[in-house]
Hints:
This protein is an alpha/beta fold.
Amino acid sequence: MQFRQGAWDTGFPVPQFRRMRVLGGRCFGNTQSEENRLSNRDVGLTADYSGGGADAALRVSVVVPTHNRAEDLRLTLESLCGQTLPVDQYEVIVADDGSSDETRAVVNSFAGRLRLKYHFQEDLGARTAQVRDNGVTRVRNAGARLAAAPLLVFLDCATLAGPDLLTAHLLVHTPPTVPGVACAGYVYAYPPRKVDDPDYACPAGLAEAVKTLTPQQVVDRYRDEPRFRDPRHGEFEKVGFDLSNRIFPEELLWSSNCSVPAADFWMVGGFDESFRGWGLDDIDLGYRLARNGTAIRLSMDGWAIEAPHERDGAVNFAGLLRNAQSFFDKYRFAEPTLELGWLVMQPPGQPGLSTLETLNRKVADWTRKCAGLTVTAELEKAFESIASDTRVAVFGAGAVVPAVGQSCVLADFDRQVVDRLLADGAGTRHDVRHNVGIHTALPDKAVDTVLITSRLDGLWGAFGPAILAEAHRIGTHVSVLTADC
């Protein structure tokens, strides 16, 4: 799957990185009307700092989305007042998705302590027992459009920033770090996907502690409590806390605490606003960033704490499943990782964080073992009994395909094999796909015959039933070939 830089279309305008003018303690975009300038839609509340405060000093823009969570927002803003990074080097943008509570008053109360901007948008989202259409991607993008700094940090409402959070995120993005990096920050006490699991209940006393102690004091008190750990901790530990050792690191880039250069963020179009409800909008961003050449890194020092608050696990999981389907439809199962992601999202249960990475490693390990394995002989023999007008798909096609009379679907799990097929001109006659065969995005009964070659032998134990199910879905007849067939 190849993407062209700047070619992402997520359905909303990309900003031209305009400056904000400071007038009487308020910052306004230079394209706004006078009426809008006096509204609460895009308002800057900038304190006077000795020795700085100009845009040139800004290094970080922190975007905090919120909806009717004024007291949770207060905790987040209070934690941002305690950063070791000088206050004139960062701004905080509160992106309000139509709150009707005291949210704006809370923002105003921090005007003398933080460099603030406030964006308000009408609440267009339906919030029912069946779906929470909360517009969070839309409001995050709106906040990011107001950013004046080169680095964006996204922090959820009710997430308390550790004192070194902004300094640590900056360090990841500072030379000699490789250009083009997105950073996942550690999040203590964040609930895992199985939010109703009693083993992950909120540690005793945490709800009160986050209101009375500093973030550092909270971490010092609960650090050794397993339920206090980031639910990704085990996955971080498996790769030595180095996400470059992971096949699919973007799975762990969560918007509750993450950072990305503004230029990279907008190069891929920001958050996709077609996602609705909870889940996968951040992984989708990470997926596009990674395919555009952005490395995914981890900062343990840039930690935050998720303060306990009400969650509807059933509604959240329903949103996750709905967004997962949108995600897979969007990319048309263009590589094995997407097939595997689709597989782990199937009923009956909620996927564990390690599942997708485990399956990715199975495919990667087998890809290395069968490098150079061709199946030309078994395909030649199979095609001897297939009429030239028969529509054929081959799973595990290999790099050398016999000359046949018909145009075929040629799928293989090895990216190098697919590239060789395309380089040799197979793509001009055949439909060449980078797939295992678990899900090809082909329509039902797209072909007459599906041939499954011995290149898939090493994956059969893990994926055989799924491959057969897909073969029978897209084809009328299915043949499983062997090396000596």
